[in-house]
Design a protein that fits this description.
The structure holds two protein chains of two kinds.
Chain A lengths: L1 E5 L6 H11 L4 E5 L11 E4 L19 H11 L3 E5 L1 H8 L6 E3 L7 E9 L15 E8 L3 E3 L2 H9 L3 E5 L19 E5 L5 E4 L17 H6 L4
Parallel strand pairs in A: 1-2, 1-3, 3-4, 4-11
Antiparallel strand pairs in A: 5-8, 6-7, 6-9, 9-10, 10-11
Chain B lengths: L7 H6 L4 H11 L5 H10 L2 H4 L4 H4 L9 E3 L6 E4 L4 E9 L1 H6 L1 H17 L4 E11 L5 H21 L3 E8 L8 E11 L14 E6 L9 H4 L20 H16 L5 E4 L4 H13 L2 E5 L12 H6 L5 E6 L4 H10 L3 E9 L3 E6 L2 E7 H6 L14 H5 L12 H9 L8 H4 L10 E3 L6 E4 L6 E7 L2 H6 L1 H17 L4 E10 L6 H20 L4 E7 L3 E2 L2 E2 L3 E10 L16 E5 L10 H7 L11 H16 L5 E4 L4 H11 L4 E5 L9 H6 L6 E5 L4 H10 L4 E8 L3 E6 L2 E7 H16 L1
Parallel strand pairs in B: 4-5, 9-12, 17-18, 24-27
Antiparallel strand pairs in B: 1-2, 2-3, 3-6, 4-6, 7-10, 7-11, 8-10, 9-11, 12-13, 14-15, 15-16, 16-21, 17-21, 19-20, 22-25, 22-26, 23-25, 24-26, 27-28
Classes of the chains: A alpha/beta, B alpha+beta.
Chain lengths: 227, 741
């Protein structure tokens, strides 16, 4: 069973639920942000995109204090799988479940666009359906996706293979020209050391159906099996 | 604030004429209180009462068997089958956006979303139609940036995709920009909610954000011309909070799903005043409110201010006693205020109390029924006939068509708007089948095979040259854009942006545009189901071009049949459907290259237009064409460029067969109506031609899609255009960014 957390202001909650339930045909339920525990049958939790608490103060900054986040931390510590997409990634960083911060895009503008990404780590439960260094296309839709962390942290992320996706050219080159938001090292997604918590700015749930022109995102949901 | 005496000056400051004041006295049987004066002033403002336009709006066709709700409600409703209703409307936020572009545009989006979810629909797609003055002016660039950010800021946070729209720039908008926002929502057909205060004894409940002093007299401001004091009107602009609106949306939909609501209306323009009086008026009941129960942001507000505040993100609900607690609990769950502020009565009165004392008491139905209705004088402008005189034989033909082509492609209305729509979340809700930048936005309807296509359009230069024909063109073009996706156009919403109706010339434009729109809607079988009128778009006596923006929604039964505008494969044949005439009047070419905004707009035959739409639906159904693109602004060449650029194809075009009796510039850039460029596999050419001819339309093969990166046009063995597609792409992609630098 997948659990999709609903914060006040979440707006990709229905989209994630739709893909899990109606596209990959797996069971899913919503989890209200005021819940302080997680049902035993839930094996994967999704923190969806949107503007939790209006993104007031800072994106994700208020959501970290909600009761559900305490429960999600416990869930992750005991090995449960967690994916934070967009605002979910911002929340994971604010809650210190992942290192680093997501700052305002270099252009200072919201960007919604399909972009090529390189799958740097395909050894995770989330990404095992991709080939190593495969170039995929996923859309981003954010104003605060400019990933930053101290040099030492980046070195550690690299050392432990925690960088999962990087923005790249259609041929897989990782250059400034193909960095949409100013992220350090073109980072688009990272995982924790244990590999069970994934944070990513791009939206895999938006490209999981042929009808929408792209199914590269579906692989993440398929990789997770039946949970 | 203290309540002032009712003096002549005060009445005048409220925009109420002597005749209107006598009407107030007649309704009340006495002099109004200050609160009552405020109520009448906003309810009888042009914005709320439509006093100058109402008489003429009656010309619109509003019925068809698929129309569930026509004009008069918060939004119009059509039946799209599968027990689903589509609810949509377009609205203007012009005046506030000129004063404060970010908040003006943002609250415009907030308002139209509330209009749609008030009716029980979840908003699923937005469009917008934006018009600015000359972008060489830094203030216009500031407005441009602010408006786009405001739309993005509000719409993105709400999780409603903005899937298309139009943008143009013209000096006539230097003093009055236009910000028109459209939204469409979906609901179950039998779960539509209305703004009705039914059921005597029921509770009247206030939900959402607290009431502050913002936006007081916003609607009055929007019913006046600008002078030099636009800056001083900032306090009349509301401030938006999309997060609160998102909570309000979810809470309202939850309460509706649980059937806890009898009637509901948003507090938009004229706030608590319009919502309470209109709900009572529609139900034929009365409403009594105790204003001391209204949640306030500022404690020193008086009844007048509370009634007139246009604070955003508020709703007025009516519910039965038995459902009250459950209803309030839902709003509490979403951390919103929900307070009983009154009840439905049987005396037909809008009665406003303040700590138990009555401060206003008006026959609710009379506020709207007895609202002024003006048949304002109209007169054809003196300049009109001269404007229409154009002898195209005096227009020199250019030598270098490559250069002309690139200049036309660089117009803000034609060049790529990706730098704008990439700031809008256009994919959230995972329904967007066609990305913005195409002829029409298309969303699939989950749990069905269907899709809806929608487009907003208006060529205001055409309307300036001939409001009647221009109004028709606006409908035809919006419907054609929708038809190009394979959809059948079903219904229209419109936003009529005009100058000061007290000027007979403006009234003439408005009346004629309405007649043109009405005729086109009748002929194309697309009734008007909702809309908005924005008058007084004038600054220092200078009016905008008449700009009746038309939104058309159409349906495709099978989403897999949706056609996009871009060429799909090399070797495909390019076909022009429709007649190309020797006409240049009102064209972008004439305005840009020859600095003439004159002549008459292209001729329009609505029967052929409708046949064209039927043809496109058949071509889509039979999967016979690989692309379809409407030919309008910038003519055939602009249309062709848009077909090529998306996927980097070139085109090898020969127009010799069309060239007899037609000037080369008219052939390339003329804007003859009811034309579409399609591409198809060579094997399907005969089938396509048979279908075109069966509909009585003109069929011409004009070229082939090529993969060599060249865009070439020859006429009678003479090369007139020869450019690399990369050059077209460069100009198309970068012109708007350059104009905004």
């Amino acid at each position: 069973m997948y659990g999709v957390v609903v914060f006040p202001g979440s707006n990709c909650d229905h989209d994630c639920y739709h893909v899990i339930k109606h596209v990959t045909k797996k069971p899913a339920q919503f989890i209200w942000h005021k819940q302080d525990s997680i049902d035993k049958n839930i094996k994967t939790i999704i923190l969806p995109g949107g503007f939790s608490y209006g993104d007031y103060l800072r994106s994700g900054a208020l959501a970290q204090f909600s009761p559900i986040i305490k429960a999600v931390k416990k869930f992750a510590q005991s090995g449960g799988l967690v994916i934070g997409i967009c605002n979910g990634f911002q929340i994971l960083c604010e809650a210190h479940m992942l290192p680093g911060v997501l700052m305002r895009n270099k252009s200072l503008k919201f960007i919604c666009k399909n972009l090529p990404l390189k799958v740097v780590n395909n050894k995770l439960p989330f990404t095992k359906g991709y080939k190593e260094n495969q170039v995929i296309t996923l859309p981003i839709a954010h104003a605060d996706g400019n990933y930053y962390a101290e040099k030492e942290t980046i070195a550690e992320l690299e050392k432990y293979n925690q960088i999962v996706f990087r923005y790249c050219s259609p041929d897989g080159e990782i250059t400034d020209q193909f960095n949409p938001n100013g992220s350090i090292g073109n980072i688009a997604g990272i995982t924790n050391r244990d590999g069970n918590v994934l944070g990513m700015m791009p939206h895999p749930e938006r490209c999981a159906e042929e009808l929408l022109g792209n199914t590269d995102g579906k692989i993440i949901f398929e990789s997770l099996g039946n949970n | 604030m203290k309540e002032p005496e009712i003096t002549k000056e005060l009445i005048k400051d409220h925009g109420i004429t002597d005749e209107e004041y006598s009407r107030i006295i007649e309704i009340l049987g006495r002099k109004p209180s200050f609160t009552e004066l405020g109520i009448f002033s906003v309810m009888w403002s042009e914005h709320c009462s439509y006093k100058s336009s109402r008489l003429h709006l009656r010309n619109f066709p509003t019925k068809a068997k698929w129309v569930i709700q026509g004009p008069g409600e918060n939004a119009g409703v059509i039946d799209i089958g599968d027990d689903i209703a589509a609810i949509f409307k377009i609205e203007s936020h012009n005046h506030p956006s000129y004063i404060e572009p970010y908040q003006g545009a943002a609250t415009g989006v907030g308002g139209i979303l509330r209009d749609v979810f008030t009716m029980g629909a979840r908003p699923v797609a937005s469009l917008n139609s934006l018009r600015f003055g000359e972008l060489s002016d830094p203030y216009q660039r500031h407005l441009f940036g602010g408006v786009v950010s405001g739309i993005a800021g509000y719409g993105n946070c709400m999780g409603v995709p903005t899937i298309g729209g139009e943008i143009s720039a013209h000096p006539c908008y230097n003093g009055n920009i236009l910000v028109n926002v459209f939204n469409l929502g979906l609901s179950k057909k039998d779960k539509i909610f209305y703004g009705s205060a039914a059921g005597v004894g029921n509770h009247v409940i206030y939900v959402g954000a607290k009431t502050g002093k913002d936006g007081i007299h916003g609607v009055t401001m929007a019913s006046e011309e600008f002078t030099d004091d636009a800056e001083q009107k900032k306090p009349t602009v509301q401030v938006g909070d999309p997060f609160t609106e998102k909570l309000l949306l979810e809470a309202c939909l939850e309460a509706m799903k649980k059937e806890l609501i009898v009637g509901i209306q948003d507090m938009g323009g004229a706030g608590l005043t319009s919502s309470s009086s209109e709900m009572a008026g529609r139900a034929g009941t009365g409403v009594e409110l105790e204003l001391s129960e209204v949640p306030l942001r500022e404690s020193d507000m008086i009844p007048y201010e509370i009634m007139l505040s246009e604070s955003q993100e508020r709703m007025l609900l009516v519910c039965t006693d038995g459902k009250k607690d459950e209803l309030i609990d839902i709003f509490k769950k979403w951390e919103l205020d929900a307070t009983v502020i009154g009840r439905v009565t049987n005396d037909g009165k809008l009665r406003i109390k303040w700590h138990g004392n009555t401060v206003a008491e008006i026959e609710a139905s009379k506020i709207s029924d007895k609202a002024p209705l003006y048949d304002r004088p109209s007169k054809k402008p003196d300049y009109q006939d001269d404007l229409n005189k154009l002898d195209i034989s005096t227009i020199p033909e250019p030598n270098d068509y490559n250069e002309v082509f690139l200049r036309i492609l660089s117009l803000p209305s034609i060049a790529s708007k990706s730098l704008v729509w990439e700031q809008y979340d256009h994919m959230v809700r995972t329904n967007t089948v066609q990305l913005p930048g195409t002829s029409a936005g298309v969303i699939r309807i989950k749990a069905t095979t269907k899709a809806l296509a929608m487009s907003v359009d208006c060529n205001s230069r055409y309307c300036y040259l001939d409001p009647y024909l221009g109004g028709m063109h606006a409908v035809a073009e919006a419907a054609r854009n929708v038809a190009c996706t394979g959809a059948v156009p079903m219904a229209v919403t419109n936003c009529l942006n005009f100058g000061n109706p007290e000027k007979p010339e403006v009234m003439w434009q408005l009346k004629n545009a309405i007649i043109g729109i009405a005729e086109a809607c009748t002929e194309l079988n697309t009734p008007v189901i909702s809309g908005n009128v924005s008058l007084y778009n004038e600054t220092k006596g200078s009016a905008i071009f008449p700009t009746p923006v038309i939104g058309v929604v159409g349906m495709i039964e099978d989403v897999s049949n949706v056609i996009s505008h871009s060429f799909k494969s090399g070797g495909d044949k390019i076909i022009l459907i429709g007649d190309t005439l020797n006409e240049l009047g009102g064209s972008d070419y004439l305005a840009l290259i020859h600095s003439k905004e004159m002549g008459v707009p292209p001729a329009l035959n609505l029967k052929k237009e409708r046949a064209l739409h039927e043809l496109l639906a058949e071509l889509s159904n039979d999967k016979l064409v690989n692309s379809a693109q409407d030919c309008s602004d910038g003519g055939l060449m602009a249309a062709m460029a848009e077909c090529c650029i998306d996927k980097g194809f070139g085109a090898s075009i020969d127009l010799s067969a069309l060239a007899s009796g037609i000037r080369t510039d008219a052939l390339l850039f003329g804007e003859s109506a009811s034309r579409v460029v399609v591409s198809c596999d060579e094997k399907d050419v005969v089938k396509v031609s048979e279908k075109v001819i069966n509909k009585g339309l003109t069929f011409n093969i004009i070229g082939t899609v090529v993969k060599d990166g060249r865009f070439t046009v020859i006429i009678n063995n003479r090369s007139v255009i020869d450019l690399g597609v990369s050059r077209l792409l460069d100009v198309y992609s970068n012109s708007l960014a350059n104009a905004l630098k």
